[in-house]
UniProtKB/TrEMBL annotation:
Active-site feature positions: H109
Keywords: Hydrolase
InterPro entries hit by this protein: Histidine_triad_CS, Histidine_triad_HIT, HIT-like, HIT-like_sf
Protein name (database record): HIT-like protein
Organism name: Jannaschia aquimarina
One GO molecular-function entry: hydrolase activity
EC number: 3.-.-.-
UniProt motif (Histidine triad motif) ranges: 107-111
Length: 126
């Protein structure tokens, strides 16, 4: 998947208000909303409002203000949802990139998942 941004992807449509969402947090540079097929009691998608395809694209090309806003929004959501290790049992943050990473939507997004034991993400090498 190249870094060419497709402005017809589902998250671009959500950002434009063409598709509804259940907003968890919104700032100048970031939108967070409930996943429509949650994998745990807490499953929030956090996306930058800018046109970034993957995490590495975002961190390489976003402004300092966008990066800081995104990171602080993630921290606030973890605290607000009670999944931060300071207020809960912890969480998993997942982002997929490119074909091998099984990225389905070509807009950088972070899954914040928690509210139950999640088990190992990968099996131990044996």
């Amino acid at each position: 998947m190249p870094y060419t941004y497709d402005d017809q992807n589902v998250f671009a449509k959500i950002l434009r208000g063409e598709i509804p969402n259940t907003t968890v947090a919104e700032t100048e540079h970031t939108l967070a909303f409930e996943d429509i097929t949650p994998q745990a009691p807490v499953h929030v998608l956090v996306i930058p409002k800018g046109a970034y395809v993957t995490m590495d694209d975002f961190y390489a090309n976003a402004s300092d203000a966008e990066i800081t806003d995104f990171a602080r929004t993630v921290a606030r959501i973890c605290a607000d949802k009670g999944i931060s290790p300071d207020t809960g049992d912890g969480f998993r943050a997942i982002t997929n990139a490119g074909e091998a990473g099984v990225q389905e939507v070509p807009h950088f997004h972070l899954h914040l998942i928690g509210g139950r034991p999640l088990g190992r993400m990968l099996q131990k090498a044996g």
